[in-house]
Amino acid sequence: MADLKKIVFVLLFVVQVAYCKIPSYIKVCPRTHQNLSACIYDSIMELKPQLINGIPELGVPGLEPLLLDTIVIDSLGGGTRLATNLTDLKVFGASGFDILKLTPTLTKKGYNFRFDVNIPKLRITAMYELDSKILFLDLKGKGPFYANVSDYHFECIMKGHKVKIEERNHLEFEDMKCNLVIGDVSVLLDKLFERNPTLAKATNDVINDNAHVLFDEIKPGVLKAVAKRFTEIANKITLSFTYEELFP
Ligand SMILES: *[C@@H]1O[C@H](CO)[C@@H](O)[C@H](O)[C@H]1NC(C)=O
Ligand SMILES: *[C@@H]1O[C@H](CO)[C@@H](O)[C@H](O)[C@H]1NC(C)=O
Ligand SMILES: *[C@@H]1O[C@H](CO)[C@@H](O)[C@H](O)[C@H]1NC(C)=O
């Protein structure tokens, strides 16, 4: 009798393990949860340590640093005065994000999420290539680019829809759409006039007095790259499981 119990227990255990594909670090939020917003908030916050280091088994890269694709800003289009290429972009501090507001909406197609996030401090490093006239200065050169941004505050909407992949439902997100407001920003273009340190200092001073103007030029590119990366991370997670597993 005791043996039978043991066998049944082991069988139940095996069945449960086989069906429970969601790893323990992902907290599942049932669709009928009375406070879905709070549940998803907790779920994301509990996932933070994994997000910082990355989740190799789901193909999610680590957030620290956040590596972004090359940003090309072309002075020919959109009335931009700045022609810059930023390559080898690394963003530090993204994991310090705070979710100020999160509103999930269940739709016919799946889920939409509206969220309001603040990152208190971001440090960006890159290599720049600049060929511009800005603020009456002829800026031409290349070298390391550094920027510090405080209160990187964005409001986004992420639309998710159910897709069928190999007969199973998954939630897939479209690229999220965001508005961005930032606090203070400081920028350093290193080695801009390498052979003329006085001019380099003067130029960087002018640039910093107008750091907001400069950052406004590169903001759409940075925002697009960050939004794309976050959408990729969200999709890596949601597409690894079925819709029913994630939102029972
Ligand atoms: C949901 O939870 C949050 C945070 O715990 C709380 O502020 C909010 O009032 C709750 N909403 C409802 C409808 O219970
Ligand atoms: C940026 O890169 C593009 C293509 O790689 C190049 O054509 C352009 O001249 C570069 N712009 C600057 C300012 O270096
Ligand atoms: C950014 O902040 C760090 C310290 O937090 C400082 O060492 C660095 O000089 C700052 N860079 C810029 C471009 O302001």
In short:
By secondary structure, the chain is α+β, with helices and mostly antiparallel strands.
Task: Tell me what the structure shows.
With 248 residues, the protein is of the alpha+beta class. The chain has one domain (27-246): TULIP domain (Bactericidal permeability-increasing protein, domain 1), CATH 3.15.10. It has helices at residues 2-19, 36-53, 197-209, 211-238, 243-246; strands spanning 66-68, 71-73, 84-92, 98-106, 110-134, 137-165, 168-173, 177-181, 185-189. Strands 1, 2, 3, 4, 5, 6, 7, 8 and 9 form a nine-stranded antiparallel sheet that branches. It is elongated and about 85 Å long. 22% of the residues are buried. Bound molecules: 2-acetamido-2-deoxy-beta-D-glucopyranose (3 copies). The site of one 2-acetamido-2-deoxy-beta-D-glucopyranose has 7 residues, from strand 6 and strand 9. One of its GO terms (cellular component) is extracellular space.
Reconstruct the topology from this structure.
Elements: H1 2-19, H2 36-53, E1 66-68, E2 71-73, E3 84-92, E4 98-106, E5 110-134, E6 137-165, E7 168-173, E8 177-181, E9 185-189, H3 197-209, H4 211-238, H5 243-246
Antiparallel strand pairs: 1-3, 2-3, 3-5, 4-5, 5-6, 6-7, 6-8, 6-9
This protein binds 2-acetamido-2-deoxy-beta-D-glucopyranose (NAG) (3 copies).
One 2-acetamido-2-deoxy-beta-D-glucopyranose is lined by residues 123, 146-148, 186-188.
